[in-house]
Amino acid sequence: MELNLKHKTAIVAGASKGIGASTAIELAKEGCNIVLVARNKEKLQQLEEKISSQYQVKTLSIATDIKDFKNCKLINQMSIASFSKVDILVNSAGASQGGIFWEIDDHIWEESFELKVLGTIKMIKAVLPDMIKHKSGRIVNIIGNTGKQPSPRLLPGSSANAALLTINKGLGEELAPHGIVVNAINPGPTKTERWITLMEKLSKDTKRKIEDIENDFIKDIPLNKLANPEDIAKIVIFLASNAAANMTGTCITADGGWTKGIV
Ligand SMILES: NC(=O)c1ccc[n+]([C@@H]2O[C@H](COP(=O)([O-])OP(=O)(O)OC[C@H]3O[C@@H](n4cnc5c(N)ncnc54)[C@H](OP(=O)(O)O)[C@@H]3O)[C@@H](O)[C@H]2O)c1
């Protein structure tokens, strides 16, 4: 199937590791030029080298913090200066921590909303004026199934995800007349550094072995496993492509069947 991604430009926010890094690689395989965004310069450079040595695409890495709107605007400006247009924005920056509700510090809640919710909003706001000018654009938000099925020990992330699902849906309608589509993916537990950090924190808080906590999650997942970041990245490719031409405001759940009910 022709996905029509060749020579398109994609910004991936949260590209230094995890789902974002896998997404950058999958987009490069399809011929997209990639703007890699995260704070860790070294990791971005390593990924940039890997992508440029394996695929015939151009890359630009920008080490910055997307919590500051000035930085998001700069990412858009630098992308346009290098590639003339931004076709795709993937939002995959997030690092919500979990824990037992009454023990979670305020700063964990603040960080979760500041980065995941406001960071996503700021990145979208930064690319929109040019996307509106070109009457085209594809935005893919990596959210998380706990927005629909809250996990009691992951409430800062669950509530940030619920907020983003609302924004994703509303923006789909708002931006459709401008030729811009907005869709999302709700991954379930996915084996990335973030997941490992979450498990370590829960293990410390509950004084249980990481393996036991992880198995508690896995026993509720019909496919009986955690996802790999590549599993999620492949769905980003679909949503960023022509194959998803008639979709906006939608969210694809990719959680091994974990979410109960009709989704
Ligand atoms: N893994 C899962 O089980 C799972 C499940 C459902 C949903 N999700 C969601 O999927 C998204 C990606 O998760 P992941 O597991 O891939 O996480 P990850 O491995 O921790 O990657 C997160 C990315 O965000 C970047 N980032 C963090 N803070 C940033 C900031 N202030 N400015 C710019 N970039 C920043 C990180 O790079 P730097 O540290 O270099 O900045 C990294 O590249 C998150 O929103 C997460 O909530 C994950």
Characterization of this structure:
It is built from eight helices and seven strands, in the order βαβαβαβαβαβαααβ. Strand 1 (9-13), helix 1 (18-29) and strand 2 (33-38) form a beta-alpha-beta unit. It has helices spanning 18-29, 41-54, 69-83, 106-134, 155-175, 193-206, 210-218, 229-240, and strands spanning 9-13, 33-38, 59-63, 88-91, 137-142, 180-187, 251-254. 48% of the residues lie in helices and 14% in strands. It has a single domain, classed as NAD(P)-binding Rossmann-like Domain (Rossmann fold). The chain is globular and about 50 Å long. By secondary structure, the chain is an alpha/beta fold. NADP nicotinamide-adenine-dinucleotide phosphate binds next to helix 1, helix 4 and helix 6.
Can I get a quick summary?
The chain has helices at residues 18-29, 41-54, 69-83, 106-134, 155-175, 193-206, 210-218, 229-240, and strands spanning 9-13, 33-38, 59-63, 88-91, 137-142, 180-187, 251-254. With 263 residues, the chain is of the alpha/beta class.
Count the helices. How many? Answer: 8
| Beta-strand content | 5-15%
Q: How much helix is in the residues? A: 40-55%
CATH class designation: Alpha Beta
Describe the main β-sheet briefly: 7 strands, parallel
Query: How many strands?
Result: 7
H and E order: EHEHEHEHEHEHHHE
Distance between the ends: 27 Å
Instruction: List the strand order in the largest sheet.
Output: 3-2-1-4-5-6-7
CATH superfamily: NAD(P)-binding Rossmann-like Domain
Structurally, how many domains make up the residues? 1
How would you classify the helix and strand content by structural class? alpha/beta
Q: Give the overall silhouette.
A: globular
Bound molecules: NADP nicotinamide-adenine-dinucleotide phosphate
- Our Rg estimate from Cα atoms comes to 18 Å
State the CATH architecture. 3-Layer(aba) Sandwich
Q: What is the CATH topology classification name?
A: Rossmann fold
